[in-house]
Write a structure and sequence with these properties.
Blueprint: E1 4-7, E2 20-26, E3 29-35, E4 41-48, H1 54-67, E5 77-82, E6 87-91, H2 100-104, E7 114-121, E8 126-133, H3 134-143, E9 147-149, H4 153-161, E10 169-175, E11 179-186, E12 189-197, H5 201-214, E13 223-227, H6 234-243, E14 248-249, H7 253-259, H8 270-274
Parallel strand pairs: 2-5, 5-9, 10-13, 13-14
Antiparallel strand pairs: 1-4, 2-3, 3-4, 6-8, 7-8, 10-11, 11-12
Helix pairs in contact: 5-6
């Protein structure tokens, strides 16, 4: 995907104090957007690159933040969304702030250089727990006085729950470049949330079908919705269509309208564009 730097002709730097900035970063690059006080999208930027570690990603993002004119403005709110597989969804009944590190290390690692973050998800009475590099955490809090940091799984879960229907079985996939989040909703309640690493599209289909089997999902009647960077791969669409009826591949028509590129994978940025609506 090419670099993109779109700024609406009506956007002025003076208006930034009434606007909301959202930033996404991952191993495939980083992006940011600005919504003005009327919720109109007035800035959209994407810088693709390949990085093999959180540290490399953070180093590039910090450099960009320091040197970009828009990212040096003051905003009403700032949201930063890391997209990494390392996170943990903890049911509210098991969450204990005093022992959060112990909870997290049940299936994740915590480095001495990490800061643990957590966010309450009211609709499902659960907490999303993750880590960020402490030096980066301190940097963004100094650079952006009003900032919230939350993993991309947060808007993914909220977005899926907003589409939950009674008496149905729904499967949601958020497919990133090296991992995907899987969410299974039965009768408007979460039955399963998990994250899987993958190397090929066949891995995604294998894990999905295995979860369907283990959870007793009716494969013929389940509703499947997919979004994320990997939707550019037609092989995935072909494979999924073999096993599940009418899988839905999400799109963000707003971006396609702004950028005038019919081949643009707009679902890559679904959660970034909706992050400011998540109530953080």
């Amino acid at each position: 995907m090419q670099s993109i730097y779109f700024v609406d002709s009506n956007f002025t730097y003076e208006s930034s104090k009434k606007s909301i900035l959202s930033i996404r970063y991952a191993t495939d690059g980083f992006s940011f957007c600005v919504h003005d006080e009327t919720e109109k999208l007035v800035v959209f930027v994407h810088e693709p690159y390949a990085a093999d570690s959180r540290e490399a990603v953070v180093a590039r993002l910090k450099n960009y933040v320091v040197n970009d004119a828009i990212l040096n403005l003051r905003f009403k709110k700032v949201y930063i969304m890391p997209c990494f597989k390392e996170k943990l969804l903890v049911p509210g009944a098991f969450f204990d702030k005093a022992n959060i590190a112990t909870l997290y290390t049940v299936n994740q690692e915590v480095s001495p250089d990490d800061t643990i973050l957590y966010h309450h998800i009211e609709g499902i009475e659960a907490y999303l727990v993750e880590t960020v590099i402490s030096s980066f955490h301190d940097f963004v809090r100094e650079h952006f006085p009003v900032v919230q940091i939350v993993n991309g799984a947060y808007p993914f879960i909220l977005g899926a729950m907003s589409k939950a229907l009674r008496d149905t079985e729904q499967i949601f996939l958020d497919i990133q470049d090296n991992y995907f989040d899987l969410l299974f909703i039965r009768d408007s309640g979460i039955q399963l949330f998990n994250t899987f690493s993958y190397k090929a599209m066949t891995d995604i289909v294998y894990f999905l079908l295995n979860c369907i089997k283990e959870c007793g999902i009716n494969q013929e009647k389940a509703h499947l919705s997919i979004c994320g960077p990997a939707l550019k791969d037609n092989k995935l669409k072909e494979l999924l269509s073999l096993y599940l009826p009418n899988p839905y591949f999400a799109k963000e028509p707003l971006l396609n309208g702004i950028l005038h590129d019919k081949e643009f994978n707009s679902s890559h940025f679904t959660h970034l564009l909706n992050l400011h609506r998540c109530g953080l």
